[in-house]
Amino acid sequence: MATRKTQPQAEARQLSPPRLKLAEYVRSPYRVEPDAGARLDDVLTPDYFGHVAGRLRPGDRLEIMPECMSWYAEALVVDATRLSARIQLTLGPIELDAGEQVLANDHFEARWISPAARFGVARKADGALMAKHLASKADAEQWIAQRVGMKAVASPASQADKGPAA
To answer: What is the pLDDT of residue 84?
Structure first.
């Protein structure tokens, strides 16, 4: 009778204790706040982080939202040097005002003013500020609607969702 040689079974691999770490010790979360009106394509270029790239490390998490709060995205730092950082999106971009009604007026515009003044209302003719220190764009639009005649139009995002008009 022939004896079969049994080969030892490979042991299941296990995670070694030094490879389990608290995330706070190996990566940092950052909030990236581009200027109002910034596009995500600009943020995704490695040179965008030129002045701060030395602080970033691979694996750092970035929460990206411009100061006007029009969109939000999350990314991971994939590679970082002293002068640039390459990032990859993990979430988004998410349009934060998608589907809302935009109030159109021939004379005034609700817009982001600055971090100190927040949102406000500007006169279209000369750019003069009529109101500032409003908490959101919706508050600025409400300010306009209460003082002058308004007409509601669909936002560009909601028009794109509906497709071409019949």
So the answer is: 93
Q: Provide the residue type at 112 as one letter.
A: W
Mean pLDDT across the chain: 79
DSSP of 19-52? G---HHHH--EEEE-PPTT--HHHHTSGGGGTTT
Q: Write the CATH number for 39.
A: 2.30.130
Number of domains comprising the chain: 2
pLDDT beyond 80 at 83:
yes
Q: Nearest to residue 73, comparing CAs of 111, 31, 23? A: 31
- Exposure string over 128-155, b if 16+ CB within 10 A, otherwise e: eebbeebeebebbbebbeeeeebeeeeb
Report if residue 14 sits inside a domain: no
Q: Can you tell me the distance from the alpha carbon of 14 to that of 20, in angstroms, rounded to the nearest whole number? A: 11
User: How are beta strands 61-64 and 129-134 bridged, if at all?
Assistant: unpaired
- Cα-only R_g, the chain: 25
